[in-house]
Design goal:
alpha/beta, Aminopeptidase, 17 strands, 30% helix, 23% strand, binds zinc ion
């Protein structure tokens, strides 16, 4: 990964024109992109030209928006990638949402580059008809704010133009750690204010947020504020296992322990306030060599593979509950619920609603672990069912308090078994007694027949 630096320096020392470094390249290994390949360090102006070109040339998948301006008035571009010819997935469900930003620190060029490269890879892959890309863009929106700190970027400095560390300026335990230059208050800077506004208004339902930096080779998950593991540690540990087993040996750690205590970061804000699963992707343990040109595809190939994995599998980065069956007795309701997601949920409630969506009954909250199937017995004493009522689950998609709530109807095809003690059909433990089961099935058959005849 780092051999490239030497090569580049040799090229520079030998006085070759910069363009020759990529002139003879094939599509896969070239420094992709124009016009930035003739810039030693992507300036905001070069980025502006390029993202507008992306949008002009690929209107089917690139939606370019400016989400605000830097302190010096430079547009903060977000490249929004998806198959915009379809509003939802083929099954009618909402697309998953991924949010990526780069360039909080203006002198961490390889972090900005990974954000740029990720967007570019999906744009190129769509043009080439890559199946992986088609699958992602038909089912996902990928929002990439490539350069959050254009003022700092253009003068190659960590800070923004007010000498503030933007990644200490977020409203999550702002200025509560030993830190430098966090700004005069949370969101005092136009760059961080714009970023948080975008999170809150455009991508509040994202199931992944990756913020890209460089300086160390590590992926950091929350918290920076505390050494303790976050509430959704299982999700982070599962991702670490997958990445380390199959893609890269990059260390993946709690930020506080893996790097150092830090507060008011976009990562902790994204998780603690927005409820996203979040990573700080520190892309390299060496900075980009000033004045050099490198093939980013080579330098960041492994890191891009990690990003592709995180994006392709975004569906799994939350709890995904699916009710297999529902059994109702006089005073108990038992549901068999599977969680296909990699995140646990500690707040789930089963609801019975009428045809207008009016809630008629609600169970107490219960938990379902990640990648797990559970039989849950609930007190059903106050349930009274109607002819046209239906069932739904109301739950938080992750354990962290700030994670979003969803209401998902239980498919009408899920078997609802109705028994009662008068019918000698005991729901619950009795279900596993073979005699009870036979009696139970007979009772159900009788009940179903009765219900059918009632309807006629
Ligand atoms: Zn940084």
């Amino acid at each position: 990964m780092r051999v490239a630096v030497g090569l580049v320096l040799c090229l520079l020392l030998s006085g070759l024109p910069v363009a020759s470094a990529q002139s003879d390249s094939n599509e896969d290994t070239a420094w992709p992109g124009d016009p930035i390949d003739s810039h030693v360090h992507m300036t905001w102006a070069a980025l502006t030209l390029e993202v507008n070109e992306w949008a002009d040339n690929n209107p089917d998948i690139v939606d370019l928006v400016s989400v605000g301006e830097s302190e010096l008035g430079k547009s903060l571009w977000v490249v929004r990638l998806s198959d915009w010819s379809v509003e939802t997935k083929a099954n009618g469900n909402a697309k998953e949402i991924v949010y990526i930003d780069g360039g909080h620190h203006g002198n961490e060029y390889l972090g900005t580059s990974l954000a740029w490269l990720t967007a570019k890879w999906y744009i190129d892959g769509w043009a080439e008809g890559k199946q992986e890309v088609i699958d992602v863009l038909q089912n996902t929106e990928v929002h990439v704010l490539i350069m959050l700190n254009p003022d700092g970027n253009d003068i190659d400095t960590r800070w923004n133009i007010n000498q503030v560390d933007l990644n200490r300026n977020y409203d999550h335990y702002w200025n509560t750690c030993p830190t430098t230059q966090p700004g005069s208050s949370a969101f005092s800077e136009s760059e961080t204010a714009a970023n948080s506004a975008y999170m809150n208004t455009e991508v509040p339902d994202a199931d992944l947020y990756v913020t890209m930096h460089t300086g160390v080779w590590i992926m950091l998950y929350p918290w920076g504020k505390w050494p303790e593991q976050p509430a959704d540690w299982e999700l982070y540990h599962q991702i670490r296992e997958d990445v380390n087993n199959d893609i890269s040996s990059i260390p993946i750690q709690n930020a506080n322990q893996g790097l150092y205590p830090n507060c008011g970061t976009s990562r902790d804000y994204g998780y603690g306030v927005m409820g996203y699963p979040t990573f700080t992707f520190e892309t390299d343990d060496e900075q980009f060599v000033p004045g050099s040109v490198e093939n980013l595809n080579e330098r960041l190939a492994e890191e891009l593979d990690v990003m592709k994995y995180l994006i392709s599998n975004v569906w799994y980065w939350r709890a995904r509950l699916d009710v297999q069956s529902l059994e109702i007795s006089d005073d108990e309701i038992t549901i068999d619920v599977s969680n296909y997601g990699q995140a646990s949920t500690s707040n789930v409630s089963l609801r019975y609603v009428d045809v207008n969506g009016e809630q008629l009954w609600e169970s107490p909250f219960f938990a379902v672990n990640a990648t797990n199937s559970s039989m849950i017995a609930l007190d059903g004493k106050n349930l009274s069912m109607t002819d046209d009522g239906s069932w739904e689950l109301y739950y938080q998609v992750r354990v962290i308090e700030s994670s979003r709530w969803v209401t998902e109807p239980i498919n009408a095809s899920v078997p609802v078994i109705i028994g009662s003690e008068e019918d000698n059909f005991l729901i619950g433990y009795g279900l596993f007694n073979p005699v009870t089961m036979i009696a139970g099935f007979a009772a159900i058959a009788a009940l179903l027949q009765r219900e059918e005849s009632d309807e006629e």
